[in-house]
Design goal:
The chain is mainly α. The protein is built from 4 helices and no strands.
């Protein structure tokens, strides 16, 4: 088996398994979705976002205070935009751009 054939088979198997895992819940729960699955669909997005916030801010040192200023400003912008526009993509993108601007241009 050549390297190209092996790579194509590897990509095909990975794509097939990914598609199967994506379609499996629709096939299994075709008639009735269990209440626990509906509950998890409601609470997991918030839990995942909370874990991401903790993960992103875990190494932020607030001493001296200027070290935490870019992170605090970016988090404040994300919270403000999300409360105002209710658009997750806009909030995260603007917070990321704000943080990168502060880190690259202001707080070198």
């Amino acid at each position: 088996m050549t390297g190209n054939t092996y790579a194509l088979l590897l990509v095909g198997v990975a794509a097939g398994v990914t598609a199967l895992l994506r379609f499996l819940p629709f096939l299994v729960f075709r008639k009735h979705t269990p209440k626990i699955v509906l509950y998890l669909g409601e609470v997991l997005p918030c839990a995942i976002m909370g874990m991401l916030v903790v993960y992103c801010l875990r190494n932020v040192s607030i001493f001296p205070a200027a070290h935490a200023l870019p992170e605090a400003l970016a988090v404040a912008l994300v919270v403000f935009l999300h409360r105002w526009k209710h658009n997750t993509l806009l909030s995260i993108a603007a917070g990321t751009v704000c943080y990168m601007f502060f880190v690259q241009a202001v707080f070198k």
